[in-house]
Amino acid sequence: MRRSLSTEELAKGVLNGEIGAVARSITAIENDLPFGNDILARIFPHSGNAHLIGITGPPGAGKSTLVNELIRVYRAGGNKVAVLAIDPSSPLTGGATLGDRIRMLEWHNDPGVFVRSMASRRFGGGLAQHTLTVAHVFDAAGFDPVIIETVGTGQDEVGIASLAHSTVLVQAPGMGDSVQTLKAGALEIGDIIVVSKGDRTDCQALARDLRRLQTLHDREDVAIDRWIPPIVITSTIDETGFAKLAGAIGTHREWLRRSGTWEERVRTMLATEIASRVQRDLQRRIQSQGISQDAVIEAVLNRQISPLAAADRLLESLSNR
Amino acid sequence: MTSSPEPTAIDQPVRILVAKPGLDGHDRGAKVMARAFRDAGFEVIYTGLFQTPEMIANAVLQEDVDVVGLSILSGAHMSLFPAIMTALANVGREDALVIAGGTIPAADVRKLKELGVAEIFGPGTRLQDAVDFVRQHTAPVSEAARDGS
Predict the structure, then answer these.
(1) Same domain, A12 and A92
(2) Domain range for residue A33?
(3) Chain B: nearest CA to A1, how far in angstroms?
(4) What is the interface pTM, i.e. ipTM, of the complex?
(5) pTM given for the model
(6) C-alpha to C-alpha distance for A148 and A162, rounded to whole angstroms
(7) CB-CB contact of A134 with A116 (8 Å)
(8) Interface touch A93/B38, C-beta < 8 Å
(9) Residue B93's domain spans which residues?
(10) Is A182 a residue whose pLDDT tops 80?
(11) Tens digits of residue pLDDT in B40-65
């Protein structure tokens, strides 16, 4: 049987970088098991060292393949790398196919690489509820960087930017004309922008469209030490761009530190984590503590009260408890 | 104030690794099973073709899965499966529920079960039977709760 370990042993195992202890602890946190909270309480003081890198972009843009190449660069530099790869859960059954690991199998024999697949469990925004909390475990276990790969995203999933120090936005050519690059949303959150599939001829046009938008910004204030997201073209087929990408991520880290933005971001990240937890627990309380939603929904169905009044009523009944 | 509500069943879906050890390239069965497990509400880590016993054991360890589903059509099961069971023990995960599917002769089934393979699903198996077997043999809530208690 799986060896039964105490909370203390597991926490100690995490701090020693033991793979099995890290794996178990992540499960405990992901599944909201009470001992997950205890482990986190023990290891959290030892976290805060790792560079958290978010990788986001549309499905099939090449995120997992790019992560695999980043692992290669970081391993060559002697870093222990952890990857948290998120894929979507079914809205119908809750099941999931987690298929990112398959792009990173070549590291299976390397104890300095830990790949963990995670289902979004309907959290939304291309993330899972416990994304940052799981990153703390890797962080405390001595992995640096911790790479978070989001679900394949569209135009509006920007949550990763509040959970990572550096966000890499991956765009692939062939997804629309230059109007697409004018749109607000996901395109604005990349600290580094990657144009993948660089062996394709149309990638230059995409890179150019993305760069043109940036030059608008540049003219506004050149004096400040502002970060202008570099655009990096990568190709797995030609094996180009990945060292440059890792270099850009490193430069961004240095800029974060130099400009004081690092502390600002960490504050945002932790505040986001806390708020998301509060939100989740409130929701659960509404669902599980005998507040009769049915009666409220019934009243709305009969057009007796408005949906907004119903929401107020549910919130009131919570605070009266 | 009350403490956090108890986790519900949806918080703890079965995690299962679906892998194809060995060198045959016939992954249709593995893909069909991965889909069936997904539709049953399981979280399926799909690593696909050409997996060595060490790759499988390492994925089981890192992904902390409850179940390993192996698909094999090459005929090499009598050499690969014992190696997989050993590799799982080497990483401390001999507790994982191991099930298999593919073309495995009846005479070998008994030997494989002696090695610790929980069940073998041959050609013609109903998808639901495999799903039901996994459900019956995993109790993620109680098993996971045992740690740290």
Answers:
(1) no
(2) 1-46
(3) 4
(4) 0.89
(5) 0.91
(6) 12
(7) yes
(8) yes
(9) 13-140
(10) no
(11) 999 999 998 999 999 999 999 999 99
